[in-house]
Amino acid sequence: NPGKERYNRPQKVxxxxxxxxxPLEVSTCLYVVQHPAEESRVLRTVxxxxxxxxxxxxxxxxxxxxxxxxHPELAAVCRDSRTLILYPGPNSQNLEELxxxxxxxxxxxxxxxxxxxxxxxxxxxxxxxxxxxPKQVQLNRTLSSQYVIRTxxxxxxxxxxxxxxxxxxxxxxxxxxxxxxxxxxxxLCSFQLQHGAQIHHSKEHLLKxxxxxxxxxxNKRKIKRMEKLVTDHNICPx
Length: 238
What we know:
Its EC number is 2.5.1.25. This protein is of the alpha/beta class and 238 residues long. It has helices spanning 36-39, 46-52, 72-79, 95-100, 118-127, 160-171, 175-194, 203-208, 220-231; strands at 29-34, 58-62, 83-86, 93-94, 110-115, 135-138. Strands 2-1-5-3-6-4 form a six-stranded parallel sheet, with helices on both faces. It is globular and about 40 Å long.
């Protein structure tokens, strides 16, 4: 279709010049488990990620609930000892630490990333027991999100593309990967801002600067979580 480009965006905001000329060569295989609501969002980062990687290296699986019977391939990936799930928490290991103690190039990992809002991702992780089988990892690199056209809970929250970019650069031991994958995201944000989009500050930023204009939640647990956003610089919303 001449009106569309590799990542299915209108030509007037064509991002092809910002994509790598050839898909990036990576040994890691990504499995993006996507909440159905993400499909209808206009400003998604996963299509950009898929456009930068070879076919078969970025697999998108849509749904809320997953089981062995309906998703045998995903179940097999979850049982594979080489599979990691990118999900922060008390049981997560720092990905860079994990890679440091492995011989370079000996393991070709699978990485599962949950794509949705923070509350959707938390729900999907907790309610799908197969996601508890892989080794749980998190990113401890400091990276300020470039995805300023969609609101994040805190300043350290990253989009799915950014998570994948950091994870791949660590696993492939190649920092250029991060730069190449973030290039189209920066261009997308730049295009949107030039055409009238507003910068979306994180909820943390809004609360700390007295700019949060929505009604405060009545649920005590939610209030506590929002208070933590203001006081704890390293909070993980999940």
